[in-house]
Amino acid sequence: MTFVESIKVCFSKYAEFKGRASRPEFWWWCLFVFLAGIAAGVVSQVLSALFSLATILPSLAVGARRLHDTNRSGWWQLIALIPVIGWIVAIVWWAQEAKEPNRFG
Q1: Hey, where are the domains in the chain?
Q2: Which residues contact 84 (CB under 8 A, 6 or more apart)?
Q3: Under a CB-based contact definition with an 8 Å cutoff, are residues 98 and 65 in contact?
């Protein structure tokens, strides 16, 4: 999956929490949100805030679908609310290969 395909898929599945997301889809999306967020912040703080609001739901959705690909519930994203340790655990899980067989399809 390419950078542009990933962005299209994530916006087309804006609030789709079911299914699975490949590693490239997830990581390209993260790169897009990071770079576009920085660019929006350079232009205006209001634009940056609007961009963050517009991308929070698809970011949560792709994160849940990525965890589904590793055979975990999307609710495990909440572990990232724990400072440092939670972030590390979440990143490791998002970086893992897909698990087969998988209860999420």
Answers
A1: 3-95
A2: none
A3: no
Say whether pLDDT at 95 is over 80: yes
- CA-CA distances (angstroms) from residue 47 to 14, 33, 36, 55, 56? 20, 13, 10, 12, 14
- State the DSSP string of 46-57: HHHHHHHHHHHH
The pLDDT-based confidence of 99 (bands split at 50, 70, 90) is confident
Burial (0-12, 13-18, 19+ Cβ within 10 Å), 30? middle
The number of beta carbons lying within 10 Å of the beta carbon of residue 31 is 13
- Count of other CB atoms within 10 angstroms of residue 38: 10
* Amino acid identity, position 49: A
Other Cβ atoms within 10 Å of 9 Cβ, number: 19
Cα separation, 88 vs 56, whole angstroms: 20
